[in-house]
Amino acid sequence: MQWNPTLLTQARLTYYCQKAHEKGETSSLISGFVDGTHKQICLPGRETEDQEMFRFEHKHIHSIEFLAVVTPDGIISCIYGPCEGKRGDWGMWKEEMQDMVVDNAKDSEGDRVYLYKDKAFYLEDEIIGAYRQENRIEFTEGESVFNTYMAKQRMAVEWGFGKMMQLFQFTNLKSNMKYGLSPISCYYLVSVLLTNCHTCYYGSKTSTMFFCDPPSIISLFQLSEIDKQEFDLYLVQVDHTLNSL
Length: 245
Description:
Elements lengths: L9 H13 L7 E11 L9 H4 L1 E2 L4 E10 L5 E9 L4 H16 L9 E3 L10 E2 L12 H13 L1 H13 L16 H19 L2 H6 L6 H5 L3 H20 L1
Parallel strand pairs: 1-5, 5-6
Antiparallel strand pairs: 1-3, 2-3, 3-4
Helix pairs in contact: 5-6
């Protein structure tokens, strides 16, 4: 669930950069998109101190937060969390995910590749974002084109979160997410993992937009052929059980 160099190889990251470039990204250096997401939880009891800890003031809700990287194949390739709702994306990035990216985000030539960020992040050696207008200086044509294309591509992150919530609507009901009484982070992480499995078999809106093939289920889990056959058999049994209900 975290950055896996066995799956996110240098060749794979080069492939992601190529697919993003073909959709209009001009640098050929962006391999994925990073963003945070808040999962609303049930209001903690007033007798505890948890209400303030999990309060997300921007949307006036109580939540836990995850930070995720979505790659052009639609896979949520790295996720960090949970953290309390009052934490920001930048703090989560600096605490854990940055070191994983620094150590592993390189292409086939050994050059650094980058993640594309939103306004919640500052510029770092591993992440880049849209050009910002300073001192009312107009953007150049190249800067404007870059911002326009990347604003569309960054939606890949939201589509990744959206697909997970569509497949596992149980996690959308805050009454099911009771801190201290339910394994709320486990619910979310398992949903992400199974969403990745679904993407391996059926693709996603993100993979379709980038024309980027997801990895096989064997690559995702580093399965042997015997494991693959047993997994396929299990899915058939699950499908038969669901159809009989």
